[in-house]
Amino acid sequence: MIDRPLTQHLRQDGSPVFMTDYRGGGGYEGLRRVLADSSPEDCLQQVKDSRLRGRGGAGFPTGMKWSFVPMGEKAGVGPKYLIANADEMEPGTFKDRIILEQDPHQLIEGMILASYALQANVAYIFLRGEYTVAAERIETAIKECYSAGYLGENIQGSGYSLELHLHRSAGRYICGEETALISALEGKRANPRPKPPFPQVSGLWGRPTIVNNVETLCNITHILTHGAQWYQSLGIGQDSGTKLFGASGNVNNPGCWELPMGTPIREILEQHAGGMREGYTLRGFLPGGGSTDFLTPDHLDLAMDYDVIGKAGSRMGTGTMIILDDRHCPIAMVRNLSHFFAQESCGFCTPCRDGIPWIVQLLDRFESGQATEADLALLEEKARFIGGMGNTHCALAPGAMEPVTSALKYFRDDFERHIHDGRCHYHSDVGGR
Amino acid sequence: MADVIITLTLEGVEMATITIDDTLYEVADGANILEAVLSLGLDLPYFCWHPALGSVGSCRQCAVLQFQNEEDERGRIVMGCMTAVSDGMLLSLSNDKAVDFRADVIESLMTNHPHDCPVCAEGGECHLQDMTVMSGHRNRRYDGLKNTHVNQDLGPLINHEMNRCIACYRCTRYYRDYAGGTDLAAMGSHDHVYFGRHEDGTLESEFAGNLVEVCPTGVFTDKALVNDYTRKWDLQSAPSICVGCAVGCNIAPGERYGRLKRIHNRYNHEVNGYFLCDRGRFGGSFVNSDKRLLSAGWKLDDDVFSPLNSEQALAQLQTLCLSGDGLYAIGSPRASLESNWMLRTLVGRDKFCSGFGAEDAALRATVSAIVEGGVHTATLPEVEAADLVIILGEDVTQTAPRLALALRQTVRNVGLEQAATMGVQYWQDTAVRNIAQNTRTPLIELVTASTRLADIASDTVTFAPADIARVGFALAHALGAGPEVDGLSSTDIALVARLQALVDNAERPLIISGCSSHNVSVVAAAQSVAAAVAQKHASTRVVYVAPEANSVGLGLLDPNALSLEEIGAAARNGEIKTLVVLENDLYRRAPKAQVDALLGSVANLVVLDTMEHLTAEAAQLVLPVASYAECEGTLVNNEGRAQRFYPPITASEDRPPAWHWLRSLAGAMKHSSLAELTQIDDVIDAIATDVPLLAGVIDASPKASYRDRVGLKAARQPHRYSGRTAMYANKTLHEPKTQADDDSALAYSMEGESQSLPGALRSFVWDPGWNSNQSLHKFQDEIGGSLKGGSSGARLINATGHPVSGRSDVPDAFERRQGSWCLTPQYRLYGSDEMSAYATPVAEMMTGAQITLSPADVESLALGAEDGVSIVIDELSVDCAVIIDPLLPAGTAGFVVGHPEMLNLRAGSYVALEKKQDFMRVPEVIVTDGVRAHG
Amino acid sequence: MTDLIPALSPEEIAEIEHEVSLIPRRDGAAIDALMIVQRHRGWVSDASIKAVAALLEMSAEELDGIATFYNLIFRQPVGEQVILFCDSVSCWLRDADSVKQRLIDTLGIDYGQTTQDGRYTLLPVPCLGACDRAPVMMVGDELHSQLHDCDLNALLAPGEASD
Ligand SMILES: Cc1cc2nc3c(=O)[nH]c(=O)nc-3n(C[C@H](O)[C@H](O)[C@H](O)COP(=O)(O)O)c2cc1C
Ligand code: SF4
Ligand code: FES
């Protein structure tokens, strides 16, 4: 059986796999079988048994998330919704793009299956606006599905119907946050909504809604096609399945690879990413995108598993690592990230809206050599204030502070040297980044 | 751990015991922590939460620490406003973690605030100032740049200063979600959020003025106050009642240097809660108008008035009134009960006219429906609790605006219930609105034209007034009361069936009607509907809308008083020698010819009023009187609630309350029982004895002898603290002896205890650390509940519970007439009301003369985009702009009641319309904010 | 207000109406409608805001509040092509700053500006999700990667821009 299900169809040249080839490779077989043989309850059980955890960043067990969706009469009148979160705007994250551009049917099949399991009749792909190539290819794939009878009324004679729409986002990172995404899909300002009520109960247009990451949904196809047992066996650590891991920064071979859950970081960095570029030494890395805590070379032998990375004080996040080398200033890197988060704050709650810009201002003081000890203390205080879970309305701000607080922990010398020397020692020009 | 239990028990509410900082408290289960904490009288800072708006959790200021159990020592920061209390909950407000967190929040909020308190109109009553102090933010550590914004011109009422914004989102939540306005929105994102309009322009909502009180800082401020500024601590305020309409909202007008500076809401949870309409807020400053009568005047031969001092004036008054027994009087629905009663008693019942206008018959029917209809009139909370609203013939937004704002909350009930079944509390605002989406509690309007409630109404059906009555009667009949109605169209029959089904399914139906269509049948039909509905559902409520502040009071005072027509007849018969007109411009009540005829056939005309107007000009003797802001008196609102207003401004000797003139006259006329009434309390006692229906007026407010716990009167001025300037700083820096006020339990002073004050005597809210209006919760039983000192006012009418139908003569159906149009009255928030039009900001909001036509009639008249129409009545012609209303029944034409140029038009009469070329026409009618009916 | 709807072309109206037909409320199509107008006109003017708002039966304020929230909706005129230059972390690590400087030198404009010939507007954009090919930017709909190896002059030369 396949051991790299997510990337099995991908081609060397990056050209897209459309219907004929997708079906040629066994695509939509699983869907056909499930619609014929399995009940929605069976599907849910399979997903639960697979121990699949959401690939959007938080790693929440997918089966459990789905089980909160009211089924049957409890769902009340009106549609239920499934949404594929294809917003992918987390800095350093470039995994969903690959599937969206090259294997759109994989996502669509997963979505049809997920929708069937949840008995949702309307599904959306919420795609980030800049993914223009993906948009075209998804549109094509959706059309193919309608003609082939995988979407629309009475799919494959099963009596089950599903409409699938592509929504292209008008921008803003916060749209990736599931409740903000729902606000955006409703045509509003993408302010996140308070939870509870959770979207599973009251989401899009007030109706039960599941938002899942693209990669999560792709896994559904394989789980329901090959079974939970098989899926669990793919992981080599505590978590099941495979994962799209990536690395960017000054490594020899930046890229994205499908590897078993639990693959050691060292293997990803050294074998797949080809190690550090000539003249660059590893100083640290963000294991799962721009909103995760730094880890250091000391952590290289950890397995990329949600709980393992969590115990080490960071998060698996999206599994795409950003590598910091010895020639880049950690403060400048954190400043770059903080600037991003400040810009992308939706502006709804205070610590995030008014706090992160202050962080940027403080980091600028370090970079321009004006920072004092008091600024360092203030920076720590403010990062704690903004970053505390529950301190803000949504998880953007805590995520934003993860690189800051971990940089303060691991690269404290750098902060102190900036204060002491009155300049940034990485960049010849004062304040240069 | 804790051994004290502090209890706050509320009737019918499940209680939970929670621990806050080692003290046990009982609080309402399911409330949020912030509400509960404030209800307990504890302090917790907040911004985005508002008692009427609920919680969204944006500011993060209300953080507290929650512990999982007794062992948990770390605790977890939770937002007070977003977390429901539950039994056994362990909380800390004072733990360092919570305190530090709140200090961090305020410090962040202030990073972009300009710290311009010294020049800010909010200074001294600013929630942001209070919360900054409360949260302990003193030293500024942020030394980066501050964001700045461009301000917008939002029209004559409201000033905009965006730099002061702390992005709490209250303004747009109030304006859009609560008040249904659409022309104010949050723009931009991250730390560049901006709250304003798409472009400069006057805010469209009739309730925009509440932004002044909703905004916790100085972004939205009262423009008139900004331009003629006084700090809160220098204002002298009084508990007062809005004279803008018959809802009777409680207001707190503030005075300085003898001028009325601004009007704030005065909380009365049964009448107006936290909000006013813009007529009330901005219209009350008519008292500053240069049209005010300053001194008494005696008309000389050349039609010029020569000023008289009070003594001379009184002498003239006596001469005119004592010279014979042909003394008649016309009272006024905008004058106090006291003045009206005094006048009526003086001239005798058979010679007293209430001074109602065109709506006279319908108004009498309305009052009789209130008194005799047997169905309970809804208070504000009852309106908001209804689960079905049927409106017959009333454009509520224009005739009882605060009621319309309440109805905007009523329609949320279905959604709230839906949310409740999902375990979502009413205060979880985002979630409730999201769950509700567009589902609304049914509200059906049967009206004569488009209304501003169209955006929330499940149906706005338009008819000529007679047809509203017919459908109403048919509905009553279908529900088992009153006569059958023949000849209804099939759509009307279907409408009746739909209404009947809604009534069957309702539990708390609310029927609203009134006299604004100037049609008795409409009121009678509504009364019958209410009676039939009340037979089915005991908790049926009604609201009958009367036009003016004291219309109902006058109706109760004398249901059989002469009408203007009857007094006209008496005049024609030469029975009237001297006519005394109290606070009434008759030219606003009846067509010019009729008033001319009346006034032409009386020998002497005496006018007592606050303002110069046409009737006053026709008088022999004019006597200036104190306005609502300079004297006290009692008004009776739609609900039959008697409410007392008190003056923030001392009346000048030349301009006493009207009843003082009349009392002096009574003395001269040897009317000793009147002449002996020295204080207003005496007058009130006399009224209560004299008029059984008004017996309850005594309870409207405490007597002048009331004293607080320490033996003091109630203060009109807030406590002195730094920055207080001398009361008459414009004249002298010395504090004069405080002015005496023998007539009331209020003092022109800051002395007096304020905690336990009766609601009727409370003119401002202030509590240590709470200088803004947000301190209100310190004086409430519970958040949104009644004042600790009791709500002000006394309801005079208690429904019998035995519903009585209205008169049952079904009118004929409306018939179009070729070439002539039946006039239907339309009310305007700005322009229909006499007094507010004298207030500068309101005058700026008024439009010229307008006539509303259906698209078909516009076409049949071949009106081009630039054309208006002219109407000729009694040889007087008026040129009007044309408004096209797609819902207006063809063959009818809406005219603006009370518009100075349209006073001659009579509801129900048929007029010819003549095209008037090149007269700028107004192409469309705003049906709801932003969404317009297309012309 | 109806007179404003003609400010939209029949094609735009048809496309917007299609979006409306898919959802429960007209105003729910606000973002799609703004994107449609922008596709046709390059940016969203005040007149377009009013026209779209009227078509969707919402107020200009509500629509503008939405339009100004999203960074891919342009409320000011832009050049024929918008250059979205990635200013996020992975590109920064791969020397995006010096590429940006070259870009500024080549075009003669900084962020937020449009070239005098009206061909390009330069804007920063968060991580474009192509970090393995950093540094990257988009020119119009097209992604250009590994820019340090790239001849920006040739890439942005006249004739290349419009496609
Ligand atoms: C600020 C913010 C941005 C996010 N962006 C994304 C995103 O682009 N894609 C994504 O799948 N999840 C994103 N998430 C996570 C989602 O909120 C949500 O947890 C996820 O889509 C759930 O999918 P999963 O259960 O399949 O992981 C984001 C979360 C936050 C707080
Ligand atoms: S943390 Fe607050 S301001 Fe930031 S994106 Fe979330 S809700 Fe918006
Ligand atoms: S008042 Fe609770 S978060 Fe604003």
Provide structural commentary.
The complex is a heterotrimer of chains A (433), B (935) and C (163). Chain A is 43% helix and 11% strand. Chain A has a 4-stranded parallel sheet, with helices on both faces. By secondary structure, chain B is α/β, with parallel strands linked by helices. Chain B contains 27 helices and 38 strands. In chain B, the strands form 9 sheets. Chain B has a 7-stranded mixed sheet, with helices on both faces. In chain B, strand 17, helix 9 and strand 18 form a beta-alpha-beta unit. A 4-stranded mixed sheet of chain C has the order 2-1-3-4, with helices on one face. In chain C, strand 3 and strand 4 form a beta hairpin. Chain C contains 7 helices and 4 strands, in the order ααααβααβββα. Chain C is elongated, with a radius of gyration of 18 Å. Chains in contact: A-B, A-C, B-C. At the A-C interface, strand 3, strand 5, strand 8 and helix 13 of A face helix 2 and helix 5 of C. The complex binds flavin mononucleotide (FMN), iron/sulfur cluster and FE2/S2 (inorganic) cluster. The site of FE2/S2 (inorganic) cluster has 14 residues of chain B, from loops.
Overall shape of chain B: globular
Mean pLDDT of chain B: 93
Question: Ligands bound here?
Answer: flavin mononucleotide, iron/sulfur cluster, FE2/S2 (inorganic) cluster
**Principal-axis shape of chain A:** globular
Indicate the percent of residues in helices of chain B.
Answer: 25-40%
Strand order of the main beta sheet of chain A, please? Answer: 3-2-1-4
For the report, how would you describe the main beta sheet of chain B? Answer: 7 strands, mixed
Total number of beta strands of chain A = 8
Looking at the structure, the CATH topology of the largest domain in chain A is Rossmann fold
- Summarize the main sheet of chain A: 4 strands, parallel
Low-confidence parts of chain B, pLDDT < 50 over ≥5 residues? 1-5, 929-935
Mean pLDDT of chain A: 96
The CATH architecture of the largest domain in chain A comes to: 3-Layer(aba) Sandwich
Give, in order, the helices and strands of chain A.
HHHHEHHEHEHEHHEEHEHEHHHHH
User: What's the tally of helices of chain A?
Assistant: 17
Low-confidence stretches of chain A: 429-433
Q: Distance between termini of chain A?
A: 48 Å
